[in-house]
């Protein structure tokens, strides 16, 4: 059986823990590989490699860094099909979707290629007589990144390209369920000329994460994952004096106003609720149907899902793949089973779905729950599966109040033809990313991604300008080249003249 090892100091390393975790193909339910699980000692080795590499990389020229990144962009692009296949084999998502996440991840590499623009700094000349002030930004040192299973390539690419472009070195701890894409990304970085130790990958579980959170040589932690773990990461790493950005889970609402194009809204709801089997932090999981739109929308969603093809992600005919684990599939099913008892109407029940020839896969079909209310489990929890809840609201105000009462605030969307209503919504809604007739408003790489409330702990969103700020710290230099006539002792507080 293939073993996936760590990547430390520019080469694969077995590690000393001797522990391994299973890597399962979700379409078959069969363990095809195993992954090394790092001990604290293995993490220490990766951090030491990163710390040693920082001495040269942190002072390397911008020309050298961008040269590597431009080559890296081309290499990842050239290998995108191969990376997508690795993602499908371990995550289960369909090939086109896996390819899409590599492309979205490349946006951040492209942003990193232009780091020269972002690190220009600021200069004020003659702030006082013969005095200039320069504001510069410098790297932090060793940065750790901890990533979730649902985007094995894109979320790591949200982090390390920008971090290393800023002059940091990096230790990535990908999800142990989907380790191969991150390894391939690290190998390609080495091929692009990234010096050994600048990017390291350690696989592991809580033990590895905890060591990163407390390690004295780790300056900052970027985390993306579920809300309880994000909260824990933020509290623990902060307590150890580190800069932290911890992006958490979500329950994204889509508000459909009576004047919306309901065909467009139904397309959007189906794509955003059931794409990637609902395992996206920006998936739409609640459709708030305003003023009589619920019945026609439900009919249109049923029409569109009737022919949906569920199957293995490497079959080009499949539109939706399996869930990540059997346990997760059973948990998702339990929300559908429990919904009727709590008063919801189960319009579509996707539980019990099977795929011929793939009986061991973690399958579930699409579910649609109507007349859901905020007290129900299916509304309250992040289900992270292909389950769409419909909540009926009489008015815009009622729908908005529901969304704003949610403890999460990742993404949200409004569907309408009324520019005034859309403008009101974007100003009044409490969420970090808003779509107007766009159901999954993931910002492009040169803007920043992040939610509000329990969807993000810390004060920096990820990538874009916030990413550059997170991976650097500011310094302001005040310079004076005195003229001989300026001599003289003056104990007063310096003021400008
Ligand atoms: P998770 O929180 O279980 O795991 C994320 C990472 O944390 C993994 O690397 C994992 O090994 C590690 N981890 C898990 N338990 C830990 C513990 N007790 N202590 C320390 N580390 C631990 O998340 P997941 O199931 O891999 O991913 C799905 C979740 O991620 C969903 O909640 C989804 O909404 C969220 N997500 C959020 C975003 C975002 O941008 N806000 C993006 C993608 C996914």
UniProtKB/TrEMBL annotation:
Instruction: Describe the location of the Aldehyde dehydrogenase domain by residue ranges.
Output: 19-477
InterPro entries with a match to the protein in the record: Ald_DH/histidinol_DH (IPR016161), Ald_DH_C (IPR016163), Ald_DH_CS_CYS (IPR016160), Ald_DH_N (IPR016162), Aldehyde_DH_dom (IPR015590), MeMal-semiAld_DH (IPR010061)
Q: Is the Nucleus keyword given for this protein?
A: no
Q: Which gene encodes it?
A: mmsA_1
Annotated region described as Disordered, given as residue ranges: 1-23
EC identifiers of the protein: 1.2.1.27
UniProt xrefs under CDD domains:
ALDH_F6_MMSDH
Family matches, as PROSITE patterns: ALDEHYDE_DEHYDR_CYS (PS00070)
**Keyword Oxidoreductase included in the entry's annotation:** yes
Q: Which domain of life is it from?
A: Bacteria
For this UniProt record, the keywords arranged alphabetically read as follows: NAD, Oxidoreductase
**UniProt protein name:** methylmalonate-semialdehyde dehydrogenase (CoA acylating)
């Amino acid at each position: 059986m293939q073993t996936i090892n760590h990547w430390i100091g520019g080469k694969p390393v077995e590690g000393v823990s001797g522990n391994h975790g299973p890597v399962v193909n979700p379409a078959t339910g069969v363990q095809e590989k195993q992954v090394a699980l790092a001990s604290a000692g293995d993490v220490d080795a990766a951090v030491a490699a990163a710390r040693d590499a920082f001495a040269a990389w942190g002072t390397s020229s911008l020309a050298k860094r961008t040269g590597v990144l431009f080559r890296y962009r081309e290499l990842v692009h050239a290998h995108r099909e191969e990376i997508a296949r690795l993602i499908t084999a371990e995550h289960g998502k369909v090939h086109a979707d896996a390819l899409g996440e590599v492309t979205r991840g490349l946006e951040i590499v492209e942003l990193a290629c232009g780091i020269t623009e972002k690190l220009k700094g600021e200069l004020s000349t003659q702030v006082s007589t013969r005095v200039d002030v320069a504001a510069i930004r410098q790297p932090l040192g060793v940065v750790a990144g901890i990533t979730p299973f649902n985007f094995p390539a894109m979320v790591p690419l949200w982090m390390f390209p920008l971090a290393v472009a800023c002059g940091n070195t990096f230790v990535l701890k990908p999800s142990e369920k989907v380790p191969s894409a991150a390894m391939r990304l690290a190998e390609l970085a080495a091929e692009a000329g990234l010096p050994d130790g600048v990017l390291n990958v350690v696989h592991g579980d809580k033990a590895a994460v905890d060591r990163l959170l407390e390690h004295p040589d780790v300056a900052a932690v970027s985390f993306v994952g579920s809300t309880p773990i994000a909260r824990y990461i933020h509290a623990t790493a902060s307590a150890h004096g580190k800069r932290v950005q911890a992006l958490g889970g979500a329950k994204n609402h889509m508000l459909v106003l009576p004047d919306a194009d309901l065909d467009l809204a139904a397309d959007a709801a189906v794509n955003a609720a059931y794409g990637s089997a609902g395992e996206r932090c920006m998936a739409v999981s609640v459709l708030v149907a305003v003023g009589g739109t619920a019945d026609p929308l439900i009919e249109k969603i049923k029409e569109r899902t009737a022919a949906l093809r569920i199957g293995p992600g490497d079959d080009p005919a499949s539109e939706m793949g399996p869930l990540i684990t059997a346990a997760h599939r059973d948990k998702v099913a339990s929300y559908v089973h429990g919904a009727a008892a709590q008063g919801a109407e189960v319009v579509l029940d996707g539980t019990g779905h099977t795929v011929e020839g793939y009986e061991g896969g973690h399958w579930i079909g699409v579910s649609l729950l109507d007349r859901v209310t905020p007290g129900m489990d299916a509304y309250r929890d992040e289900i992270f599966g292909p389950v769409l809840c419909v909540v009926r609201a009489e008015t815009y105000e009622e729908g908005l109040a529901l969304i704003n009462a949610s403890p999460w605030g990742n993404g949200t969307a409004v569907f309408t033809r009324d520019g005034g209503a859309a403008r009101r919504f974007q100003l009044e809604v409490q969420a970090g990313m808003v779509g107007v007739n766009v159901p999954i408003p993931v910002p492009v790489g040169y803007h920043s991604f992040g939610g509000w409330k329990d969807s993000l702990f810390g004060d920096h969103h990820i990538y874009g300008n916030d990413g550059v700020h997170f991976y650097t710290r500011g310094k302001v230099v005040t310079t004076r080249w005195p003229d001989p006539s300026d001599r003289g002792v003056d104990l007063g507080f310096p003021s400008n003249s």
